[in-house]
Amino acid sequence: MADIQYTVDKRDLAFVLFEQLDVEGQLLGWERYREISRDMIEQIIDHAAELAVKKLAPLNAVGDRHGCRFENGQVFTPPGFKEAFQQYCEGQWLGLTDDPALGGSGLPAPIAIAASEIFMGANLSFMMYPGLTQGAARLLAGFGSDWMRTQVVPRMLRGEWTGTMCLTEPQAGSYVGDTRTTAVRQGDHYLLKGIKIFISAGEHDLADNIIHLVLARTENAPAGVKGISIFMVPKFQVTPDGRLGERNDLACSGIEHKMGINGSATCTINFGDNERCVGYLIGRESQGIEIMFHLMNEARLAVGMQGLAVGSAAYQLARAYAHQRVQGVSVERWKDPLAERVAIVQHPDVRRMLATMKAYVEGMRAMLFGMTLYAERAEHDPDPGEREKYQDFMDLLTPVAKAYCTDVGYEVTRLALQTHGGYGYIKEYQVEQCVRDMKIGSIYEGTNGIQALDLVGRKLGFKQGRLFKRFVQHLNEFVEAHAGHPAIGPLVQRWVPAKDTLVSVTMHIAQLGLSGDWKYPAFSATPYLMMFGDVAMGYYLLEQARIAAGRIAQSSGRDQAFYRNKVRTAEFFIHHLLPEAEARAASIRSNNLSALEMEF
Ligand SMILES: Cc1cc2nc3c(=O)[nH]c(=O)nc-3n(C[C@H](O)[C@H](O)[C@H](O)COP(=O)(O)OP(=O)(O)OC[C@H]3O[C@@H](n4cnc5c(N)ncnc54)[C@H](O)[C@@H]3O)c2cc1C
Q1: Are 232 and 213 in contact (CB under 8 A)?
Q2: SS3 sequence, 313-358?
């Protein structure tokens, strides 16, 4: 039974892309996407699934067991990673949404996100290398000088060079304002000096050059985050005409031995030990955090996607196992020792776990893919009012997507392991790796606690609360339109009190904030974010159920079963998981200060 393989839920992906998001109707009519067709999208998904299942998934356990090797400043990735990376780059999977003029493929974001879910579910460690490269290339394309855009970005999008983001230092983790790395101007470049830790893909053997994006402090810069600048610091120097120069003065001094994502090299990088580390300013001095936030917002969504991808992979493993593993008798005949033995999928408690996983996975997919459509509209919608509205949605929902989906994704992997019983705890079964790999999601890219503070401390009050009001208005329009729906109306009505509770708890927190009491809102930020996530996920699942309910009558066979199951999934979530939102609200409304007064 240990050979259950990684599978891609293509049916649900197709549902989200073509039925929930209606990418054909919503995006393919735009001038920029006129050459893209549904056929082409289906082929992209098929090719991605083939590469993921045949190449990346078999390397997942290899990466986990071998890990990366550090020898004399060099880092060697696990066996097979180099060849797979080459194949990945040849397939032009890097830069799917990027500007074709720079070597990207110019595809709509929902298609790229579908491919990335497929790949990350197959092998999260492997995907750290192209994922960081893509993010770094996009930052350079948006904010770098012309020579960086023309000489560096295309090489990154071809995978010849890879990228990193270097923020963390021993004393500067969540609070990047304590960055100590320095940058001193020397004519057209700067000399950097400092140590960065925990740098993913910081050193490896997959590419000819590594382009580090480094946060550092220039001379006389103001204290805190306002005095931070961002630099492009290549491993091998790059001349403005694109030639590869001599080795830059930076070195990997070690790698971490971790709980999960062992195929991903997590490096300590020393910059300027010999006072010769050349870096090039991106944007203006002290603009570093503002620029890095653009990359971080995308990266946060990508980390939220890890919750979906690894959660979905774990759920598929658990589902298959539950059908194969025979144990005990059905609950109707539990007193009969001679009753026929049944597969564990028949036990109500196992079904509860499977239903929880299914609802969370499909809810995450609905939410995160929905957000990629918002991102498209925020960037390219012809109507400026629509662009503003969808940017507001993105700003509000990004911390929720990152933190809620990584926590929920971790819960899905936990339940998937539990479904396997003792075998789940055994390394021969892939599910335990899912749990370990998934844990990092709540830690990097700003811990989930920091996301919650971002939501409560910044996003709720941003533009006099406009972001939140707009999103609630969107939810209210959904209620007005569908509370009387013959099939899903009763579910919508059952969800409405949770939505109203979110609004009233938000007012409660806002009033505390206005009165100058930030201690309690900061204390309540995490349960608030999770409650927000529960309510939002309820909305996205109801939206899916509405679409599915409308298709049951005209469909048959497997399609009909799929649509019926969609409605049941929303039903399960509303009845059995959404009530957690009310419990979280009760905790917030209690105004209880015991934890703040307790001695530890
Ligand atoms: C495998 C791995 C890969 C990584 N990759 C990268 C990378 O590529 N680039 C990079 O720059 N960094 C990377 N990191 C670093 C990662 O982003 C940091 O670990 C993370 O930001 C947390 O910082 P810290 O570890 O110093 O924890 P701390 O900041 O010390 O936080 C410890 C705990 O305190 C909480 N906390 C801290 N401050 C506050 C506050 N003000 N209010 C409430 N709670 C607070 C946190 O939520 C957390 O629970 C990586 C880390 C790991 C483990």
Answers
A1: yes
A2: HHHHHHHHHHHHCEEEECHHHCCCCCCCEEEHHHCHHHHHHHHHHH
pTM for the full model?
A: 0.97
Q: Which of 445, 477, 543, 580 is catalytic?
A: 445
Is it the case that residue 1 has pLDDT exceeding 60?
A: no
Asked if pLDDT for residue 2 goes beyond 90, the answer is: no
Judge contact between 315 and 460, C-beta under 8 A. no
The answer to whether residue 445 is catalytic is: yes
CA distance 50 to 172: 41
* Contact residues for 433 (Cβ-Cβ < 8 A; gap 6+): 60, 61, 64, 260, 427
* Strand residue runs (E) in 338-416: 341-343
Residue 285 scores a pLDDT above 60: yes
The span from the CA of 475 to the CA of 481, in Å, is: 10
Confidence band for 3, pLDDT divided at 50, 70 and 90: low
For residue 415, the one-letter residue type is L
Backbone angles phi, psi at 17, to 5 degrees: -70, -45
Q: Which DSSP symbol is given to 470?
A: H
Mutate to test the pocket of ligand 1, among 443, 448, 458 (most ligand atoms within 8 A of CB): 443
Sequence-distant (6+) residues with CB within 8 A of 62 are 78, 79, 80, 263
